[in-house]
Design brief:
The protein is an alpha/beta fold. The chain contains eight helices and seven strands. It starts with a strand and ends with a helix. The protein binds 5-O-phosphono-beta-D-ribofuranosylamine. Residues 122-131 have a biased composition (Polar residues).
Length: 240
């Protein structure tokens, strides 16, 4: 089974998926592309130094807009989708992806929107489907978020959660992986794990403990969604 992982940062969740490939935690599964919107994302190094190395792609929004005057955020999102679709994933995992994925991106992965690039010549003879790939089945997108459902949308969720807990504004914290079905509404949670702060625990220590929970649930959630869309062949289930 084929995974595409989108990252923006250190890629520790990506690393958890890399380490789980083709083990009982994630049997018969390969990460076929790591896509980052930041060139400096350490996750890109994790991909290129994995064995076997994992193909990477990089597409940042501002440089794209600067070098494509007249193109919009929507065009950028469609270009992202084109790059993802060319890798023919069964599931797409957002692991520390610091953009809100947009409707055009999600529709392209559902197959309800073409990723045709207006700029390209309509040369019907060339089999341009590799340029404008269309998914045969809707490709699920899942996202890891370091907070509980409905809590702390956006960036720095861990620190904001920690501080809110210290101020007594929330009585529980945790992490979740959820489906991504539309730009604004968080899709149904797949796995939710409460991670209570231990007495007098510093933010740094709490964050490290919370990341370890993230690494567990991102692998579990990915396996669950993969098994929905691409169950293991029978002979694999014996030794999975
Ligand atoms: C994690 O805290 C994740 O929950 C959040 O951003 C961070 C990504 O970490 N979305 P990494 O890049 O996977 O190490």
């Amino acid at each position: 089974r084929r995974l595409v992982v989108l990252i923006s940062g250190s890629g520790s969740n990506l690393q958890a998926l890399i380490d789980a490939q083709n083990t009982p935690a994630l049997p018969n599964t390969s990460i076929v592309l790591v896509l980052s919107n930041r060139k400096a994302a350490h996750g890109l190094v994790r991909a290129t130094t994995a064995s076997p190395p994992i193909p990477t792609a990089y597409l940042a929004l501002q440089p794209y807009l600067r070098s494509n005057p007249g193109k919009t955020r929507e065009d950028y999102d469609l270009e992202l989708a084109r790059i993802v679709l060319r890798a023919k994933p069964d599931v797409v995992v957002l692991a520390g992806w610091m953009h809100i994925v947009s409707e055009p991106f999600l529709e392209a992965l559902r197959g309800t929107r073409e990723v045709k690039d207006e700029g390209q010549g309509q040369d019907e003879s060339s089999s341009n489907n590799d340029e404008n790939p269309v998914p045969t089945n809707p490709i699920p997108v899942i996202n890891l978020h370091p907070a509980l459902p409905g809590q702390f949308d956006g960036a720095n969720a861990i620190q904001r959660g920690y501080e809110a807990f210290q101020r007594g504004e929330v009585d529980k914290l945790g992490v979740m992986v959820h489906r991504v079905v539309a730009e604004v509404d968080r899709g149904e949670p797949l796995i939710v794990r409460e991670v209570p702060i231990e007495k007098g625990e510093s933010l740094e220590v709490y964050e490290e403990r919370l990341h370890r929970v993230e690494w567990e649930i991102i692998v579990q959630a990915t396996k669950r969604v993969l098994d929905e869309v691409k169950p293991l062949p029978l002979e694999d289930t014996e030794n999975a």
